[in-house]
Write a structure and sequence with these properties.
This protein is 40% helix and 22% strand. By secondary structure, the chain is α+β, with helices and mostly antiparallel strands. It has 2 domains: 105 residues, Beta Polymerase, domain 2 (2-Layer Sandwich); 138 residues, no CATH class. It has a 5-stranded mixed β-sheet with strand order 1-2-5-4-3. The radius of gyration is 18 Å and the shape is globular. It starts with a helix and ends in a 6-residue tail after the last strand.
């Protein structure tokens, strides 16, 4: 087996229960059977010519059966992005479907360079999407960088500090779940680029002044991937959210 397939297959990234519930509720109309990405396997490759060999090796190692594939090496996205995303059925007791994504490291590096610009663009779009409900602060959560098809807008924060605390906690929780995969720092960073949540905080400064990007998870991701400056006594935002103490407006979500 190739080195890429070995570290990807051996260390799947499993979404935590909060995000699983969130996905099922918001993206799949409550139908848990449609959630095909609780188990995620990230395989960056240095040489795009090895993609199909890596895929075959991974399928063999997982004893998995192919469900569907979206091959953007053969059919690149309009912006030129290339990757291969396969849904595979695992031979476990739950008969689960996992998402296996193979991306070239060159594409990931290009994506990393574009992230600050994308964050500012999404900040503007998020404010425009939520302006009708009049929020002063919006937290927009993109589910992953490589395929940004799904977004959430959280509104109703009592202060900018509260919104920023909320965004930072989501970022830390997301990266904490990656740490549990025991990947090397290099692969951890690439995996986050493939599957991590991009969280931004936007302040609406009023008509004619434009939105202000206050927080972007990318700015602290590298530090969080190396160190672990979180504590269990931090505010439990999941509980606050589930108790309905945050108003939530949801942008169109496609997965």
């Amino acid at each position: 087996m190739t080195e890429q397939a070995a570290f990807g297959v051996g260390n799947p990234f499993i979404l935590d229960q909060h995000r699983v519930r969130e996905r099922i509720s918001l993206c799949h109309s409550g139908d848990a059977g449609r959630l095909a990405d609780r188990i995620r396997i990230a395989i960056p490759v240095d040489d795009a010519r090895t993609v199909y060999t890596v895929l075959a090796d991974a399928m063999q190692a997982l004893h998995a059966k192919s469900v569907s594939q979206d091959d953007r090496f053969k059919h690149p996205a309009p912006d030129g992005h290339r990757d291969l995303q396969a849904h595979v059925r695992l031979p476990n007791a739950a008969d689960e479907v996992a998402t296996l994504m193979i991306v070239s490291t060159e594409m990931l590096e290009a994506k990393r360079r574009c992230l600050p610009l994308e964050a500012r663009l999404n900040a503007s779009q998020s404010v425009l999407s939520a302006i009708s409900s009049g929020p002063l602060v919006v937290v927009s959560d993109l589910f992953n960088y490589v395929r940004p098809k799904a977004k959430l807008c959280f509104a109703g924060f009592d202060s900018l500090q509260t919104a920023t605390d909320f965004a930072q906690r989501r970022t830390r929780d997301n990266i904490r779940s990656l740490h549990n995969t025991a990947l090397s720092r290099y692969v951890l960073r690439l995996t986050w680029l493939m599957y991590g949540e991009d969280v931004i905080v936007v302040q609406n400064n009023g008509v004619g002044r434009g939105p202000r990007l206050v927080y972007h998870s990318f700015d602290e991701a590298d530090e969080l991937l190396i160190h672990r400056p979180w504590a269990d006594e931090e505010v439990d935002w999941w509980r606050i959210q589930e108790e309905g103490r945050l108003g939530v407006s949801v942008l169109p979500c496609v997965w």
